[in-house]
Description:
The protein is α/β, with parallel strands linked by helices. Helix content is 46%, strand content 22%. It has seven helices and six strands. It has a six-stranded mixed beta sheet, with helices on both faces. The radius of gyration is 17 Å and the shape is globular.
Amino acid sequence: MLTIFIDESGTLPDPKDKFIVICGVGVRQTKEAKNIISRILSSLRQRKIRIKEIKFYHAGQNTKRQFLSGIVSANFDIFALVVNKKGRKIADNPANFALLVADLVNEINLWYKPEKVDLIIDRHFHRKNDQSKFDKFLSRGINGSSKYQIKHVDSQQNHSVNTADMAAGAILWKYTEKDSQFYHLIKDNIVVEKIISWPEIKRKNIDHKKKLT
């Protein structure tokens, strides 16, 4: 069983965000991800720092480095879809978000060709109805014969999904030219780093629908 943790950095609706990064982290043994979290939380407790979860945008410099170094040491594969929004204000709905995740998952499929996959997604939509719509759109957009189990999790309950948050944040900071040091920490573990524009993704979706009809 292959587990892919998925999270994003950046936003769809805000036109000030030039890029949005969708990141997937491939893990064979989920306990390795849990071990990374445990070590960092233990380190934070020793420094008398209490936090509910470890997120890239809230973590300190040392915590970022420790977390990302743990991902590298565990030899996790990182897959990134870097989307240039072209200055657009994009509706953050299940259909649009599923387009991005499907494009990333199709890249992951080309690398692994797995039989069964657990897709663990940091909960982007809180309403069950939106999650169901997202799952439906995502299933339609994924190519190949792999069987997927899609789970939407609260990152405060499932800390392991933050491996994807940390990787996505590091990659986004590189593309926004804020700070590239964290990107360089994980660079050798990035299997796919695909840059695409929002109009290209929309066009690909239209072409895909035509093939199905």
